Amino acid sequence: MFEHSVTDIFFDLDHTLWDFEKNSALTFEKIFVDNSVEVMMADFLAVYVPINLEYWKLYRENKVTKEELRFQRLRRTFDSVGAVVADDQIHILAHQYIEHLSSFTHLVPNAVEILEYLSPKYRLHIITNGFQEVQEKKLMGSKIHHYFDQIVNSEMAGVKKPHPYIFELALTKANVNPINTIMVGDSLEADILGAKGMGMQVLHFNSNGEPDHDHCVMINDLIEIKSFL
């Protein structure tokens, strides 16, 4: 299926290996109880999830700062569900969310199984737009850190996927030709098109229900990678 022989596989982290939605929901449950925030969790998450994705897109495009992302995604969600939460409390919640998020360690189905399958045959790496202090904790807490050789994040690179430089930095650190690599990620824009633009081979793990496209093969379960490698 892949045109060139593969030596190195680069994974995105959130929504690709680390189960962001499940861990995020558990984090909100904890901090809302701790801070006596009364809101229906199902209603909150139904609004928060698309708003969060929207703010991450703005963050990738350098249209909001890290602080604005962390505050505004909560402010807008509380406003939308009609919950009265003061700005100072939102700042506290935003801080506690980041503080506790990495303490939850659920991975997407078959993440460990596919890493176990791939790691004897290929060098594995991470390229993530997540924040450095959080991503390292996620990898350690979920006990998958040891599978990866190079771990490159957007704060280290100074740019975010799909910017070419973050891929260039990762390829340089791994000392590999892009045609001998595969990028596995959940975002068509950030992971697939970004990596493809650098000459990497790509595999779209469609965990967000993005529409079909013809840029590359799409899979719905990580275990499907076994069919190709």
Automatic annotation (TrEMBL):
Pfam families: HAD_2. GO terms for molecular function: 5'-nucleotidase activity. It comes from the Bacteria. Its EC number is 3.1.3.5. It is an enzyme of class 3 (hydrolase). Gene3D superfamilies: HAD superfamily/HAD-like (3.40.50.1000), Putative phosphatase, domain 2 (1.10.150.240). The keyword Hydrolase applies. Keywords: Hydrolase. This is YjjG family noncanonical pyrimidine nucleotidase. It comes from Flagellimonas iocasae.
